[in-house]
Amino acid sequence: MDLAMGSPSAILQLICPDRPGLVSELSGWVAANGGNIRHADHHTDAGAGLFLSRIEWGLEGFGLPRAAIRAATASLAARIGGEGQLHFSDDLPKVAIFVSRQDHCLVDLLWRTRSGELPMVVALVVSNHPDLAGVAAGFAIPFVHLPMSAAHRAEAEEAQLALLAENGIELVILAKYMQVLSAGFLERFPAVINIHHSFLPAFQGAQPYHRAWERGVKLIGATAHFVTEELDGGPIIEQATMAVSHRDEVEDLIRLGRDTERLALARAVRLVLRRQVMVYRGRTAVFA
């Protein structure tokens, strides 16, 4: 539910070939059905010849019943030669959080969810180590330990995918999950967000804080991105940075970096949950 407005809203994300009159046509459709637009954001990618739009309107007083809106927006998207996705603000997606041994991102996400900041239902915490079972228990979230090894990776991922299907999971969040998901996993479940402990594309891969310290950087950062087969190369959702100095040792960079990781991941998850992110041509448009 849109807490600021006090009642649920509909959110239409649409991408289509650019042409004159699209904003008028979309807003006119909402108005013609008695809708009150709460937010409207548009972007034209001139190089790609594409128009992207996010329109959110209140359901109270809207002329179409909720059950009929999806078909109506599909017809609207087809009429302008585009593709659309319809969401409702009071639909809370079921989410699984994958972790390993580090707890800072997990604790932060669970706390923000419990406080109402993140509109989602955390249905599962899945880990390749048993260390964080107590954290999940403290928030009354089911914890599943699935050991991961090179010899049994395929079996472990099959078990993970079965859990996601059984629990109706719509989104997976990798909150310091120190394993690389296989191409086969991502083909079957592509809705995955990861937090990487560097300001991508700098310092991809392992030990970015050590390499950042060796280079004497003055800013460290973290990047939340969608996961693709390319390691740390998926479309970027959100980034956070923090200033450091020559006085900071590697341990200081790691400690400070945890703050940027928490912040970037929480912001990214919130943006995705509020349907403010659109992915196209390997990149994102973020209507923040």
List keywords for this structure.
seven-stranded mixed β-sheet; Alpha-Beta Plaits; 28% strand; Rossmann fold; 288 residues; alpha/beta
Task: Write the SSE topology.
Layout: E1 9-17, H1 22-32, E2 37-45, E3 50-58, H2 66-79, E4 83-88, E5 94-99, H3 104-114, E6 121-127, H4 133-138, E7 143-145, H5 153-166, E8 171-174, H6 183-188, E9 192-196, H7 208-215, E10 219-226, E11 236-243, H8 250-273, E12 277-280, E13 283-286
Parallel strand pairs: 5-6, 5-8, 6-7, 8-9
Antiparallel strand pairs: 1-3, 1-4, 2-3, 9-10, 10-11, 12-13
Protein architecture, described:
The chain has helices spanning 22-32, 66-79, 104-114, 133-138, 153-166, 183-188, 208-215, 250-273; strands at residues 9-17, 37-45, 50-58, 83-88, 94-99, 121-127, 143-145, 171-174, 192-196, 219-226, 236-243, 277-280, 283-286. α6 (183-188) links the parallel β8 (171-174) and β9. A seven-stranded mixed β-sheet has the order 7-6-5-8-9-10-11. The protein has a four-stranded antiparallel β-sheet with strand order 2-3-1-4, with helices on one face. It has 288 residues and is α/β, with parallel strands linked by helices. The chain is built from eight helices and 13 strands. The protein has two domains: 9-88, 2-Layer Sandwich (Alpha-Beta Plaits), CATH 3.30.70; 94-286, Rossmann fold, CATH 3.40.50. α3 packs parallel to α8 (250-273). Residues 1-5 have low confidence and may be disordered. The longest helix is centred in the last third of the chain and has 24 residues, at 250-273.
